[in-house]
Design a protein that fits this description.
alpha/beta, Rossmann fold, SIR2/SIRT2 'Small Domain', 3-stranded antiparallel sheet
């Protein structure tokens, strides 16, 4: 391990510091889950191609709920078949070793952190979780487990039976995926926004994994770390804004490589010295 990185981690470990891990699509890409932000994520409705930033919106759901669900069901299938990798398992180990001195903030909806053993109470899914649905008209704030919709391909039609499975058990209206859409805002009730910000405000180390901070709340968390001058370590195969910010900080470091490759040693250093 690089001497400067080892020094930063040893300082946090010796002080029994609090650690916040912020993860993004990069950690799950190592499990075979694409980000769906590129051209591979488009979807055809009628004769028009829609990109993810258009499909994953409340506006599109209001106009074409069946098509939005058909698009999500295929993608949720990819998440269901993926397996946690060494990076997910390393963060779960850190969670169990540090207990309440640890908090995980993830942008990923795939559920791989929990399947690796992360503690739900110490995990903020700030973009939601594909394993759950809720009433689209908010007749109740209750979350319901995602129904078993079977295997889905791009050409799988959306049927009346699908519509019945995706009906709210309280009011009979549409259920929606429990995910943050592009035309919606973060909140505490659904996405634990304030919980994530409070964790960042008391952290001694921000460990950033596989994200560039392109969305608002992760960027705010990076701002908090920078203003407070805490330790910050960015783990990413490529240059990104978080790495640049970490390198500008007295206790910052950028680790090149994937989560599965680099996180196990970082976690050992934080736990065992």
């Amino acid at each position: 391990m690089e001497p400067r990185l080892a020094e930063i981690l040893e300082r946090v470990r010796s002080a029994r510091g609090r650690v916040v891990a912020l993860t993004g699509a990069g950690i799950s890409a190592e499990s075979g889950i694409p980000t769906f932000r590129g051209a591979e994520g488009y979807w055809v409705v009628g004769s028009r191609n829609y990109m993810p930033t258009e499909m994953a919106t409340h506006e599109m759901f209001e106009a074409h709920p069946g098509e939005v669900w058909r698009w999500y069901l295929m993608r949720f299938g990819v998440c269901r078949h993926a397996q946690p990798n060494a990076g997910h398992h390393a963060l779960a180990d850190l969670d169990h070793a540090l207990g309440d001195r640890f908090h995980l903030v993830t942008q990923n909806i795939d559920g791989l952190h929990l399947r690796a053993g992360a503690t739900l109470a110490r995990t903020s899914h700030i973009h939601g979780d594909a394993g759950w649905v809720r009433c689209a008209s908010a007749c109740t704030g209750e979350l319901f487990p995602m129904p078993d919709m079977g295997e889905r391909g791009e050409d799988t039609p959306f049927t009346a039976a699908d519509r019945a499975r995706l009906s709210c058990p309280r009011c009979g209206g549409w259920l929606r995926p429990h995910v943050l859409w592009f035309d919606e805002c973060y909140d505490e009730e659904h996405y634990r926004m304030q919980t994530a910000l409070r964790a960042a405000a008391t952290a001694d180390l921000l460990l950033v994994v596989g994200t560039s901070g392109a969305t608002n709340l992760p960027s705010q968390i990076g701002d908090i770390a920078w203003r407070r001058g805490i330790a910050m370590v960015d783990v990413n195969p490529e240059d990104n804004p978080f790495a640049a910010r970490a390198l500008s900080m007295r206790q910052g470091f950028a680790v090149r490589g994937g989560a599965g490759e680099r996180l196990p040693a970082i976690v050992r250093a934080l736990v065992d010295g």
